[in-house]
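ENTRY TYPE: paired fold submission
RECORD: A
CONTENT: sequence, then structure tokens
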Amino acid sequence: MLTLACGALELTLAPETGGSIARFTVRHEEGMQELLRPLPAGTGRPTPLDMACYPLVPFSGRITDAHFYYGGRDIHLPPDEICIPHAIHGRGWRTSWDVAEQGPAFARLRFAHEAGDPAWPWPWPWSFEAEQIFELSEKSLTVTMRLTNRADTPMPGGLGLHPFFEARSKARLKTHLPFVWESGADGIPLGLVSTPEKWRFDEPRPMKDVEVDHCFSGSAGRFAIAWAGRPFAIRMEAEGAPHAIVYAPPGEDFFCAEPVSHAPDAVNRPEAPDVTGLKSLAAGETMTLRCLFAVERL
């Protein structure tokens, strides 16, 4: 693992475990506050699901039956163990990342997928390069994600961040998410509708009684998260993420507010790309998602 620090903020990264964030904290007069759900102490062989945040690349969310057609190609991906028979969240969170650059408050992580390389038994037929840049200031963390198509034909592309926020029982979320993708029990979208009242967060809303696992559209990428009895709040501002996943599972004391570039199963949806967010990356083209985590004193 590698640790970055600036002022009262400290960030621990786990490049070898999906290029994930393991911990993000702020020191104050009375001690230290967790800003994301931390990797549990003593975890022997952590997985990305144990982490505070992991990257979604080269797509976000589920792909139905791990199968789609694109550019005249019939693509079959391996189903992920957490949602068989579907694929989910791409390759980035399931592989090790290289530390390309590092400083006291800065790190750039990178990984490259080579189509057809026998060392990569993941049948994504396009070569690509992904990177994450982490920059700490005294008052914020900025995460910049980039995805570059290194193939000679267009490929579908997507990016997202999957942060976990702890202490859901004390947390409030504020964000404007006007549309939601209705879905079945398997998480596959059925269609886009106006967001019902039970999943609206236009005013700060306690998360303890909210149960949701849906993608929302029309997001401006702005999220405000605060905890009762804690001195610091987080304000998230995401660029390149007009969609968002909000995940608050029953029986758990965490929730997720995930800025993403597209809806789940966008490669199979009948709606136009300007609705689903599906991006077609030309050969050599790069797409970017940038998310600011501003740490604010209440």
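RECORD: B
CONTENT: sequence, then structure tokens
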Amino acid sequence: MASREVWADVRLRAAWARQDWAAILREYRRAAGLSQRGLEPIVGMPQPHISAIESGRRQVTSAELMARITEGLHVPEELTGVPRPQGPDAWAPQAELRERIAHAHSAGRADLRTADWIARVLAQHRRAEDEVLGTALWGIVRQQLDAVTGLIPHAAGAAADRLMLLAAEHAHWLSWVAWQSEQRGPALAWIDLAHGWAVDGGHADMASWAQRIRAYYSLSHGDPVRALRTAEAARYVGPRTLSPAAEAAAVHQEAMAAAQVGERDRASRLAEEACKLALRVPAEEERPGWLYWLDPTRARLQVADAAYACQRWRDAADGFRTALPSLVAFPRDHAYYQARLDDAARRS
């Protein structure tokens, strides 16, 4: 396997973010299918030295050895100098990001091969939540965003629009991880950036999704009235038409907020509408990349979730019970919906 492809591996990138050299060597070998002997010519070290590092008997402390491993493993450029969130200020977007975006759409040509690569890697990050915590990948994704925004001043037209979407996807991911880490202010700042960049680039689906996430934040923070307003706005983002999947996500969030303000009939109606929209695009390739998970099973789970929010306990329990077997490969989601099922069954 080519070294660049190896570095798409999420566990390897997480090890690099920690600068855990023992784990870097182990995860690289796992991803590349190499033995310690097979790694010898790549890093320029004999097998006993590699074994000593991986077992923790030898520490990698010298700059020369770090550089040799980095060069030998062909670490991608966007992973050099990875920042780590330390303290509240480190979670927030920096001013220079806005400076780069402000120069978008100027005349120029950008080499989009780097953007293609980073887009593929971000898709892997999205799917890694059951394997690697988002905080472990924070620095990696933040560095990827730097690489993407660094290309924007040299792009124009459709190329610049495409980079704006990729930047917005990264900002959304950073917002979500910040929110899960209870960094509320930075989470809102990142999602607002994602929304603005999506609008600037003409990407209605991502603009809607950012609004939908903001509505979720308001709802989970105990403000259903604001959540309902924002979810309604997520459905109507201007003259561009939303894809069925993006509209389904917005409508479902509107249903959840409506349930919380006591509009249960409206919530039930919206939940069914959201499910029908989602079922129009059962194939993953027909949905935006960040909605890869919205398959028919998840669409029906959302109907059950809305029933739970409306306190229709029997309908909720039946819906969860039917869909749960399809989530065995997603332990975190399975545990969440199992708890919902247990509670709904107890109340019904």
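NOTES ON RECORD B: The mean pLDDT is 88. The chain has three domains: 3-75, 78-183, 246-348.
STATUS: closed
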